[in-house]
Design goal:
Blueprint lengths: L3 H9 L4 E3 L2 H7 L13 E4 L3 H14 L3 E4 L16 E4 L6 E5 L4 E5 L4 H10 L16 H7 L6 H4 L6 E8 L4 E4 L12 H5 L7 E9 L7 E8 L4 H12 L2 E8 H9 L12 E8 L3 H16 L5 E4 L3 H12 L1 H5 L5 E6 L5 H15 L4 E7 L4 E7 L6 H21 L24 H14 L15
Parallel strand pairs: 2-4, 3-4
Antiparallel strand pairs: 1-2, 5-6, 6-9, 7-8, 7-9, 10-12, 10-13, 11-12, 11-15, 14-16, 15-16
Family: Belongs to the FAD-binding oxidoreductase/transferase type 4 family.
InterPro entries: FAD-bd_oxidored_4_C, FAD-bd_PCMH, FAD-bd_PCMH-like_sf, FAD-bd_PCMH_sub2, FAD-linked_Oxase-like_C, FAD-oxidored/transferase_4, Oxid_FAD_bind_N, Vanillyl_alc_oxidase_C-sub2
Cofactor: FAD
Length: 463
């Protein structure tokens, strides 16, 4: 029997597209975590900001919780609807709304994918430089909700740096136009930055004005094989001092093993414990000399055992596949994911402690490390043995996560670098935020979402 609330919503917003088929409820009710069984009330697909407002007002009046939904590529359970919530998907709101050549901004609806945004910027001879492997499916609204980082944070920073303005539908159903693309705006609190990283708990981002950059320079990619974990930061310091780095990525032999099992080509004849993939500005004799000098210095010091530099775009893409293919290659193993960060200067001490902790606590599990070492962000994936019950595995990993959170707290780090807190890391928020900070965040939520309908239970449990 159809829930009568669905008919009430359709009557309140006649043009709204609603989905209630069982397959749709599963598809839209979960994200990439796959840890929670989806159980949404229905899937609402508005076509514009006005319909989003109408849905939120209906939900507030009827006491129905809302889970905003973009590409659902999140890894912390932030887009999970497991308790009868209404999923509000923005996938019909994918239009480019305008380009301003003077301000060099692109205004888009929040459901547009990152890849489509990059293409639209490229058509104007410019670039939207935030980038990561899920570019074809993740949405700009989701990127803003988690302040997504990715593979080029070293040069361009996180999503936050590129949002000139945004429009938010609050838990009241009001539409706020935040910052309006201004470069300078010292007129009180910048609510735009409050929304970025809020994971849909304050409202629904429906539109964004994004700053664009010059097209990136011609680049080359270098893959280096490292004999030890300790040489990682030494190689980073050397390359950063000599090259114009666009990206600096790290992964282990276990990560490479899983990517190669998926059909990628092995980069070296021999296997090595650790690998670094660096992308850097190329072209010109001076840059070529600098690259060769950096490589020679690293090999002479024993920090690098082997290496290859791309000679074409196709070869560069093949090398990047070794890094960007990791997450997809691990997905069949239902990994428990850690997404952590520390200051770059604290990385060596944290790495030593974390490596010892995980080796001690996870001796029976396949643990895969990779990440954006240049900005202090590590991804640690613990793979579930095929014979192990999913609930028992999650419980075991949760025990170790508490220890890892304490280690991060010791080194002044964060339990979530770029994936958000969602449901998965909620129990460990206090390792990163003080009780006073959490209380202030809860107070802000009460102001913008007094009925508590916006993505409830994510980040923290509102009092």
């Amino acid at each position: 029997m159809t829930d009568p609330r669905i008919g009430s919503l359709q009557q309140a917003v006649p043009a709204l597209v609603l989905k209630t088929a069982a397959d749709d409820l599963v598809h839209y009710g979960r994200d990439w975590t796959r840890r929670w069984a989806p159980a949404p009330l229905a899937i609402a697909l508005p076509g514009d900001a006005g319909e989003v407002q109408a849905v939120v007002r209906w939900a507030r009046a009827h006491g129905v919780a809302i889970v905003p939904s973009g590409g659902r590529t999140g890894l912390s359970g932030g887009a999970v609807a497991a308790h009868g919530e209404l999923v509000l998907s923005l996938e019909r709101m994918r239009r480019v709304l305008g380009f301003d050549a003077v301000d060099r901004t692109l205004t888009v609806q929040a459901g547009i994918t990152l890849e489509a945004t990059q293409s639209a910027a490229g058509e104007q001879g410019l670039a939207y430089p935030v980038d990561f492997a899920a570019r074809g499916s993740c949405s700009i609204g989701g990127n803003i909700a988690t302040n997504a980082g990715g593979i080029r944070v070293l040069r361009y920073g996180n999503t936050r740096e590129w949002v000139a303005g945004l429009k938010l539908v609050t838990g009241h159903g009001d539409l706020l136009d935040l910052n309006r693309g201004l470069v300078k705006n010292s007129s009180g609190y910048d609510l735009r930055h409050l929304v970025i990283g809020s994971e849909g708990t304050l409202g629904v981002v429906v539109e964004a004005t994004l700053r664009l950059a010059d097209p990136p320079p011609e680049t080359s990619v270098m893959l280096l094989a490292l004999p030890s974990f300790e040489s990682l930061m030494q190689v980073f310091a050397e390359l950063r001092s000599r090259l114009e780095l666009e990206a600096f990525e790290f992964f282990t032999a276990r990560a490479l093993h899983h990517v190669l099992a998926g059909g990628a080509q092995a980069p070296f004849a021999e296997r090595h414990p650790f690998y670094v993939l660096a992308e850097f500005a190329s072209g010109g004799d001076a840059r070529e000399v600098a690259v060769l000098a950096a490589f020679e210095h690293c090999t002479t010091r024993g920090w690098v055992g082997d290496g290859v530099i791309s000679q074409s775009r196709d070869q560069a893409a093949q090398l990047w596949r070794l890094r960007e293919g990791i997450t997809e290659s691990l997905a069949p193993h239902a990994p428990y994911k850690h997404d952590v960060s520390v200051r770059v200067s604290a990385m060596p001490a944290f790495l030593a402690d974390a490596q010892a902790l995980l080796a001690r606590e996870y001796p029976e599990f396949d643990v895969v490390w990779f990440g954006h070492v240049g900005d202090g962000n590590l991804h640690i994936n613990v793979l579930r043995p095929a014979q192990m019950d999913a609930d028992a595995f999650a419980a075991r990993c949760g025990q170790v996560t508490a220890l890892l959170a304490a280690t991060l707290q010791k080194h002044g780090g964060s339990i979530s670098a770029e994936h958000g807190i969602g449901l998965a890391k909620k129990d460990y928020l206090a390792s990163t935020r003080s009780p006073e900070e959490i209380a202030i965040m809860a107070g802000i939520k009460r102001v913008l979402d007094p009925a508590g309908i916006m993505n409830p239970g994510k980040i923290f449990d509102a009092p």
